[in-house]
Amino acid sequence: MLKALRHSWQLKEAARELCAAVMAQARAPEFFTRFGVLDTMDGRFDLVALHAWLALDRLKSDPAFAQALVTENSLQFDDALRDLGTGDIGMNRRLKTMAGAFYGRLQAYRGASTREELAQAIWRNLYRGAPDRQPQAEALATYAIGSHSLLANPGGGDLENGLLPNR
Question: For 53, phi and psi rounded to 5 degrees?
Fold first, then answer.
C-alpha cells in the first residue's frame, strides 16, 4: 500500500515537472517572434496544447503518466483562470470549454499523418485560419515534426524528470 502511495506521489511530481517544462517551452520567445503566434491567452493556450500533444504522444506507452500530465495541465489551466479573476461560479463552464478545446487540438494533431495535414491543423487552430498565416503554420509544423522525432528517439528527453529535448 505504501509503495503504491509513494508511486502515486512520484508520478504526480514527475507530471508537475513535465507540465512546467511544457509550459516553459510553449512560452519561448521564438514562437511569438519567428512563428508569429499572438502573445495572447489564446495563443499561449494553443502553444501549450501543441507541446502537450508532443509529450503525450511520447507517453502513449505509459497511460498513468500521460493521465497525470493531463491532470496537472488542467490544474494549471484552473490556476491561470483564477489568476485572471475567474470566480468559482463561472469556473466549471470555462474549464469545460478549455478542456474541449484542448482535447480537440490533441485529436487534430494526432490525426495529422503528414506535415501538410499538421500544418493545416495548426493553421486552423493556432492561427484561426488567418489567410496570411499559412507560411507560419507550415514552419511551426516543421518544428513540431522535428520535436516529435527528437522525442521518439531513446535519448529524446527525460520526460520522467521534466526534461524535454533541446532544439
Answer: -60, -45
Identify the sign of the CA torsion 116, 119, 121, 127. negative
Using 50, 70 and 90 to split pLDDT, how confident is the model at 121? very high
135: CB partners within 8 A, 6+ apart: none
Report the predicted TM-score, pTM, of the whole model to 2 decimal places. Answer: 0.86
Rg (CA), the chain: 16
Task: Judge whether 139 and 123 are in contact, CB under 8 Å.
Answer: no
Among 157, 152, 140, which Cα is nearest to 46's?
140
Phi-psi region of 129 (alpha: psi -120 to 50; beta: other; left: phi over 0): left
Q: What is the pLDDT of residues 8-57, one digit of tens each?
A: 888 899 999 999 999 999 999 999 999 999 999 899 999 999 999 999 99
SS3 of 12-73: HHHHHHHHHHHHHHHCCHHHHHCCCCCCCHHHHHHHHHHHHHHHHHHHHHCHHHHHHHHHHH
